[in-house]
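Q: I have 442 residues here and want to know how they pack in 3D. Can you give me a structure?
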Amino acid sequence: MLRVAKFGGSSVASAEQFKKVKNIVNMDKTRKFVVVSAVGKANKEDNKITDLLYLCYAHVKYNMNCEHIFSIIEKKFTDIAQELNLKFDIKGELRKLKEKLDSKKITEEYLVSRGEYLTALLMSEYLGYKFLDAQDLIFYNYDNRFDYEKSEKAFELIEKTGENFVIPGFYGAYPNGEVKLMTRGGGDVSGAIVASLANASVYENWTDVSGVLMADPRIIPNPKPIKVVNYNELRELSYMGASVLHEEAVFPVALKKIPIQIRNTNKPEDFGTIIKNTDDDNSEAFEKNTITGIAGKKDFSIITIRKVHMSNEVGLIKKALTVFEDYNVSIEHIPSGVDSFSVVVESKAVKPFVYELMGKLRKATSADEVTLTNEISLIATVGTGMKNNKGVSGRLLTAIGKSGINIVVISQTSDEINIIVGVHNSDYERTIKTIYYEFNPQ
């Protein structure tokens, strides 16, 4: 049994949170690899170290003084070190970092990665674990593809030592040794990579919530927690706005069927959410609900192309998609009818040139009409359990209709894992409430 435990920014935001992490790690000796994010917000008025480091770089880049910002960073780190009586020379490390920053002989990626780097150094001393720099373990090619083979060889050497390690998240290294920073939330990906390399029994992702919830708690008061969700369901929910876990964190562990468990650092007794391939698990303990969760996003646009006898014309949709490709616009959905089809895109992706794009669409397809509908929300109802329950779509659409909500667009794939409805932004919250309470009566 081997667990990889990743602790997010809120879990390492103060000395008090460091103590909680230590208690959790000490509860189970199989937590041999610990991955940490940079020190996060200790309260609503606080700042994340990562945000402050980005801000420092922007100030120096434009020849502005960043002394005040850097002093906040220093205080956050030194307060933790002093309160925990750590011997690590955090002031010396910060001083060297400030000298590099002032000399401008530093890249943004290197500077920002120091948030995780310094947090991991403090945590390694506090836990009594050995520090392992992510630059010596997580390798990328110059095209930003993860180099699994090189990373695997590095891990094999580390594993032979038999020691326990703390590893900073959020970054790795290019072939030349320079820091390669991941996208925001990339610490989740770091943890997943380490879990994959270690062939872990489980990848624990410790955060400030007790797992994934069925709906946004800002819309639904006290929504039910999701005890079990499979990788595909999580991908659908994450893409549509459920942001407990970085969506890219699924891939490294899914390939090896390593379950992810979302846990709450502040409530370690809570079970949280297990993310696993439930299709391979026949246990009654993982019995699925009809729907697993609901998630959505606002501000989409629908561009509709109408042309009589369109269905008899070969290649028409391809012509339209080529126009979108020319503008480098990603497409969400393509609902179609006999004489029309619509293309759903994020509004911000087309806003600067939308009317120019519509003109080119009309020319490329010889359309009779090209129209635009803005301020649309997409809401996904997700669950593999829908496939084995007849009438779920009808039940969902009937409930929305009874609430007096107009559905602008509907999309469902043949695997029946989700039903996506498009409604006006003004009906976004009401639609989520309607769907949630239809399947979870009060």
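Q: Anything worth noting?
A: The CA atoms of residues 127 and 163 lie 12 Å apart. The longest strand covers residues 293-306.
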